[in-house]
Amino acid sequence: MKKYLITLAVVAGLLLGGCNTKELSGTELLEQGSYEAAVEKFEEAIDAGRNIEEAYRGLGIAYWEMEDYQRARGAFSKALNNGAEETGTIYNFLGVCDLKMGYMENALEWFDKGLETEGNSEEMIREMEFNQIAAYEGLEDWDKVREKLDSYLAKYPDDEQAQKEADFLETR
Fold first, then answer.
1. pLDDT per residue over 101-122, tens digit each?
2. What is the pTM of this model?
3. CATH code that applies to domain 1-85
4. Phi-psi bin for 102: left (phi > 0), alpha (psi -120 to 50), beta?
C-alpha cells in the first residue's frame, strides 16, 4: 500500500505543482510523514477552492496514515464527489477504511467496485482480492472465505499469509 500512497502523492504533486503551493506543500508534507501539517495544507487548499478533488485525496491519505479511518473515508468520498478519477486504489482505500471500522458489507462493495475499474495493477488486484477474504471473515461467512481463499491461492500460490489463513481454516 505504501507504493500506492507514494504514487498518489507524487501524481498529486505533479498535477498541482504549477497551480498552487498550498497543495504542493501538503503533498511534500505528506511525503515527509508530517501528516498533521499536511492535513492543514490540504484543508487550506479545499477552503481556497482549488484542485479540490486532489486536495481531498491528499487529505484522505494523511488521515489514513494517521489511522483516522472515519475521516479518511470521508475525504476519499469527497474526492470522488468532486471529480477525482475512479481508480482501484481509491476504492481499495475506501474498502479498507470500512473494513477497519467494521462495515464489512460496505467494504465488499468498495472492493468489488475497485476490481471492476480498468487500469489496476496486478498488485492492486491482488490486494483487493485478499481484502475481500478479510471482509468475508469479518462477516463470518466461512463458505465464502473458503471459496475466495481457494481462488486466491490458485492465482497466488506463493502468498504465505494466505496459505497460513487456509491452514487455519482447515481447523474450523
1. 999 999 999 999 999 999 999 9
2. 0.83
3. 1.25.40.10
4. left
